[in-house]
């Protein structure tokens, strides 16, 4: 069976992105989004999720200072592991304090794939009983290939983070935290488009896959928090593509919450 979690990142980064994610959910494009708990629109996001209980959520943990803060801050010694653990725990607790139950964890700019930070994310998933943690299935050579095809140097930034993904995935599984068998869309972030989205849908393998989206509108408001040239996809175009291929390919669009519930039912 091909189980596909289509997940939108950056829920809470700005009002335009929030509207786009909600439209995607109502169009049936996705059932899952990851909340930027220290984002400027968090309270609005919490309200939207409560009003739309079928939308599954996870925590999109970010380094202190907002979405533009990168791993370089940690590597330069501007923040410690202790501080990051404290900040990430506070972000999870903020989501929980609004009565929201996250089914998955991931991080802004995928910084948790740096091994010392991965251990923090894994420990927090175990501490808060969060069943899924994002570990990409892409290899470093995939990032290099995509960089050449798209002529986008930013894709190269993922290369060092992908080196350890195989061992990180095994560590998560042996610790009792689940990871998707395949993660799609990471290398296409900021350059997706409906045609490439359809191509990715046709490549979904058997098992559990996550397809990561970055949704938004053609507006300055929606682009707030993103680097220049980063493309956000409007949900209507992707929903039309999904409506064709999901049925034709027999894909089961689901969420991590639904997958966790199915596992609990089997084990009961």
Keywords:
268 residues, alpha/beta, TIM Barrel, 8-stranded parallel beta sheet, 46% helix
| Sheet/helix structural class | alpha/beta
The coarse overall form would be: globular
- In the CATH hierarchy, the third-tier topology is known as TIM Barrel
Whole-number count of domains = 1
State the major sheet.
Answer: 8 strands, parallel
Rounded mean pLDDT score: 87
Output the CATH class name.
Answer: Alpha Beta
In CATH, the architecture is Alpha-Beta Barrel
CATH homology superfamily name: Glycoside hydrolase/deacetylase
Number of DSSP-assigned strands: 8
Gyration radius over CA: 17 Å
Instruction: List the helices and strands in order.
Output: EHEHEHHEHEHHHEHEHHEH
- Measured between the Cα atoms of the first and last residue, the distance is 22 Å
Q: How many H/I helices?
A: 12
Note down, in words, how this protein is organized.
The chain is α/β, with parallel strands linked by helices. It has a single domain (2-267), classed as TIM Barrel, CATH 3.20.20.370. The protein contains twelve helices and eight strands. Strands 1, 2, 3, 4, 5, 6, 7 and 8 form an eight-stranded parallel sheet that branches. α1 links the parallel β1 and β2. The chain is globular. 44% of the residues are buried.
Task: Give the topology, please.
Blueprint: E1 2-11, H1 15-26, E2 32-35, H2 42-51, E3 56-61, H3 71-75, H4 81-97, E4 104-107, H5 115-127, E5 132-133, H6 140-150, H7 159-162, H8 165-175, E6 182-184, H9 193-202, E7 207-213, H10 220-223, H11 235-249, E8 252-254, H12 256-267
Parallel strand pairs: 1-2, 1-7, 1-8, 2-3, 3-4, 4-5, 6-7
């Amino acid at each position: 069976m091909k189980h596909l979690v289509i997940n939108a990142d950056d829920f809470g980064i700005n009002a335009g992105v929030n509207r786009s994610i909600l439209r995607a959910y109502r169009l049936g494009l996705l059932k899952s989004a990851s909340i930027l708990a220290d984002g400027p629109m968090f309270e609005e996001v919490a309200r939207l999720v409560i009003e739309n209980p079928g939308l599954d959520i996870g925590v999109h943990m970010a380094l202190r200072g907002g979405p533009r803060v990168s791993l370089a801050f940690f590597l330069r010694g501007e923040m410690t592991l202790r501080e990051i653990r404290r900040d990430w725990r506070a972000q999870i607790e903020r989501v929980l304090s609004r009565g929201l139950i996250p089914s998955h964890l991931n991080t802004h700019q995928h910084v948790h794939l740096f091994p010392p930070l991965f251990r923090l994310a894994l420990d927090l998933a175990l501490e808060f009983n969060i069943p899924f943690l994002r570990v990409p299935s892409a290899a470093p050579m995939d990032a290099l290939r995509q960089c050449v095809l798209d002529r986008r140097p930013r894709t190269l930034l993922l290369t060092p983070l992908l080196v350890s993904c195989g061992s990180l995935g095994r560590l998560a599984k042996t610790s009792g935290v689940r990871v998707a068998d395949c993660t799609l869309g990471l290398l296409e972030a900021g350059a997706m488009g409906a045609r490439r989205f359809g191509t990715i849908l046709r490549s979904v393998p058997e098992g559990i896959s996550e397809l990561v989206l970055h949704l938004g509108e053609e507006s300055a408001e929606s682009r707030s928090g993103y680097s220049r040239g980063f493309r956000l996809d409007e949900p209507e175009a992707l929903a039309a593509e999904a409506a064709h291929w999901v049925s034709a390919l027999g894909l089961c669009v689901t969420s991590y919450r639904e997958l966790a519930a199915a596992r609990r039912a089997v084990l009961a």
